[in-house]
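Reopening: CDC6 protein still failing for me.
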Amino acid sequence: LLVLDELDQLESKGQDVLYTLFEWPWLPSSRLVLVGLANALDLTDRSLARLRALPSGSPRLLHFPPYTKEQLTCILQERLGQVAGDPILDAAALQFCARKVSAVSGDARKALDVCRRAVEVVELEVRGQTLLKPLPGGEL
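Support: Ran it again with your exact input. Result attached.
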């Protein structure tokens, strides 16, 4: 079993690498099962059209739909809930993030990245405020 994530990153001018990978399972006495994961839904149609000419035909495709707003909210709450202490982001902010990301892509990685970036921005602001505060009993 060979599992390749981000298969669309192997695209090249002649697609030699991808064609070779997809032909391996069909070699005589091959026991290889190839599972390719890609973000591009049209990868096989757009970049690997010659696969349809093979006796095996085109690869079987399994489409995973994008996450919904509710699913993204649950993922964000679960991930951020793993951090000890006070909640990192307000529940309304998580729902806002989930709503926006689900409307554009439904990509959980993008939603987590947005939250990470929001935390970084707040950290920078807090550090800036801390640096400007006068020290106790001292002068600025």
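The first strand starts at residue 2 and ends at 4. If you still see a failure, please send the error message rather than a screenshot.
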